[in-house]
Write a structure and sequence with these properties.
- By secondary structure, this protein is α/β, with parallel strands linked by helices.
- The protein has two domains: about 150 residues, NAD(P)-binding Rossmann-like Domain (Rossmann fold), CATH 3.40.50; about 110 residues, Dihydrodipicolinate Reductase, domain 2, CATH 3.30.360.
- Helices cover about 30% and strands about 25% of the residues.
- It is built from seven helices and twelve strands.
- The chain has a seven-stranded parallel β-sheet with strand order 3-2-1-4-5-6-12, with helices on both faces.
- Helix 3 packs parallel to helix 4 and helix 5 packs parallel to helix 6.
- The longest helix is centred in the middle third of the chain and has 14 residues.
- Bound molecules: NADPH dihydro-nicotinamide-adenine-dinucleotide phosphate and ligand LZUJQKHR.
Length: about 270
């Protein structure tokens, strides 16, 4: 069996630490290094929760990739850093699997071109939970028949980006099939700024942030005399890991940028 050598960026984070577990527990995967902006040198085992993991820690991505020569970089950090990591990985011939959200359309275009130039694949998945991917696909199906849509995404209060990557992706997928419509009353006025949420092609996106939440989204469709609500909840970060595994296995076989897990699951 060919061993897949993996580097994880953001290993102490909520998602990164779950990904460390996934890689450690998966036959055929080897965690060869981790990338941690606050620590350089030493071993992952020196941090709480990672006892026994003698995996080298690097602060600098180039030094990390040169020393560990991975096949795949899993990035679970922040948007600016994630973009830098993804570009650097591609430049070193390492295939990125990116869960970090907040990438712009321009970022995606640039990465698509870099994948083409280097002839290797990358996967950027705003949501790795298979239920969430289905929620997005079902919402796209519904968007063909209902053009009044409100997306309500709800997350823990430590989340940096709003709207969530999942909400943006959902709106993009619905927009591919939905007849454009400016929703609500043509003369509606916000008496408190932001009351109607963010506007994507006339659809509204509302971001809720509360302690106690993990990752949740409702997509509500309305038409005369009826509503349809499509809802997904992640109750822990383990819910994302089967999708991370699918992405790692798939990125080894592709030579383009894939944005969204819905493009690679059957
Ligand atoms: N695609 C998906 O299915 C999912 C995606 N996400 C996304 O993943 C990302 C991480 O989320 P989450 O784990 O909850 O966030 P956390 O804040 O828990 O983790 C982020 C980690 O990145 C580290 N980090 C920050 N800057 C750097 C850097 N320059 N170099 C290396 N590491 C860095 C942080 O370290 P420190 O705290 O020390 O600064 C922290 O350990 C977010 O963008 C989130 O939206 C989250 C869940 C699911
Ligand atoms: O930050 C999170 O937690 C999550 N981020 C992703 C997003 O922005 O959609 C995926 C999931 O919703 C959890």
């Amino acid at each position: 069996m060919n061993i897949v050598k993996i580097v994880i960026a953001g290993p102490r984070g909520k998602m990164g630490s779950e990904a460390v577990k996934l890689v450690q527990e998966t036959e055929g995967y080897e965690l060869v290094a981790v990338l941690d902006h606050k620590n350089d040198g030493g071993m992952l085992s020196e941090f709480p929760g990672f006892s026994g993991l003698d995996i080298p820690v690097f602060a600098d991505i180039s030094a990390c990739l040169k020393a560990s020569e991975p096949d795949v970089l899993i990035d679970l950090t922040t948007p600016e850093v994630g973009m830098h990591h993804t570009k650097t990985a591609l430049q070193y011939g390492v295939r990125p699997v990116v869960g970090t959200t907040g990438f712009t359309k321009e970022n995606l275009k640039e990465l698509e071109e870099l994948c083409h130039e280097k002839g290797i694949g990358a996967i950027i998945a705003p949501n790795f939970a298979l239920g969430a991917v289905l929620m997005m696909k079902f919402s796209q199906m519904a968007g063909k028949y209902f053009n009044d849509v409100e997306i309500i995404e709800m997350h823990h209060d430590q989340k940096l980006d709003a709207p969530s990557g999942t909400a943006v992706k959902t709106a993009e997928m619905i927009a591919e099939v939905r007849e454009t419509k400016v929703q609500g009353h043509p003369n509606e006025k916000e008496t408190i700024e932001g009351a109607r949420g963010a506007d994507y092609d006339g659809m509204h996106i509302h971001s809720v942030r509360l302690p106690g939440l993990i990752a949740h989204q409702q997509v509500m469709f309305g038409a005369s005399g009826q509503t349809l609500t499509i809802k997904h909840d992640s109750y822990n970060r383990a819910s994302f890991m089967s999708g991370v595994k699918i992405a790692v296995d798939t990125v080894l076989k592709i030579d383009t940028l894939v944005y969204g897990l819905e493009n690679i699951i059957e």
